Amino acid sequence: MTTVLILVMLLSLLNHGSAFFRVCPDCGGLQVPYPLSTNEDCGDSRYRIHCNSGNLEFLSATGVYYKILRIDPCARKLVIQPPVILKDTCYTSDLPEWGLMLDEKLPFNISTQNVVMLFNCSDNILQSPLNCSMNSICRKFEEVVEEGRGCMNTLCCHYLKDSAMTSHRIRVRLGGCTAYTCLVDSQPRDSVASWKYGIELQWSPPY
Ligand SMILES: *[C@@H]1O[C@H](CO)[C@@H](O)[C@H](O)[C@H]1NC(C)=O
Ligand SMILES: *[C@@H]1O[C@H](CO)[C@@H](O)[C@H](O)[C@H]1NC(C)=O
Ligand SMILES: *[C@@H]1O[C@H](CO)[C@@H](O)[C@H](O)[C@H]1NC(C)=O
């Protein structure tokens, strides 16, 4: 009796497993490793990402799509492209949505490998534990990088997004800071030319 039961359970597991573990097709030259899922027929639907006209994209909780630059399935990490800073302003394209916000119910969070720079901040940011000094690396971004020109001479700061902070958002707003960018796998002492832009997200295992 027990053997039959185990056999039935095993069979149903195998059956289930084959549909469950189907890997999604590539998108825009990127592989879509399990459990990431671009449609209902593959991957694990809790790990939904999007293949929009040949671009692999991550959808935020507030409906903004961010381009996925690379995926590391072993480390369970992916890197998305930071939003652009609109020309001649110091506004990121996701300012109307208050920056990047991840759905806390989903298995993704922002990793601790990110150095975030905030621009055009109001004075009350100075009370927070960010580096808003004259030698913060955000000054170099304003001076050297074309995209940062619109933020020149605004109050800016940088910080390491570590485990002491919320891992589900990078917030911008009018009257707070109105733009941001982010470096991944870079140290503040690295030269501007070697900076790698990106926001690294990680996902929890599906089991
Ligand atoms: C701010 O960052 C700069 C550049 O990394 C560093 O030299 C400086 O010591 C930092 N200041 C504070 C107060 O942490
Ligand atoms: C900086 O932010 C303020 C509101 O907080 C806004 O009025 C101003 O236009 C912003 N500056 C730039 C250069 O975008
Ligand atoms: C983010 O997710 C990873 C993987 O599930 C987990 O190990 C880590 O503790 C999470 N970080 C935070 C700050 O919640």
TrEMBL record:
Keywords: Signal. It is found in: Membrane. Residues 24-78 form the Wall-associated receptor kinase galacturonan-binding domain. One of its GO terms (molecular function) is polysaccharide binding. It holds the Pfam family GUB_WAK_bind. Residues 1-19 form the signal peptide. This is Wall-associated receptor kinase galacturonan-binding domain-containing protein. GO terms for cellular component: membrane. It is a single-pass membrane protein. The lineage of its organism: Eukaryota, Viridiplantae, Streptophyta, Embryophyta, Tracheophyta. PANTHER family: WALL-ASSOCIATED RECEPTOR KINASE CARBOXY-TERMINAL PROTEIN-RELATED, WALL-ASSOCIATED RECEPTOR KINASE GALACTURONAN-BINDING DOMAIN-CONTAINING PROTEIN.
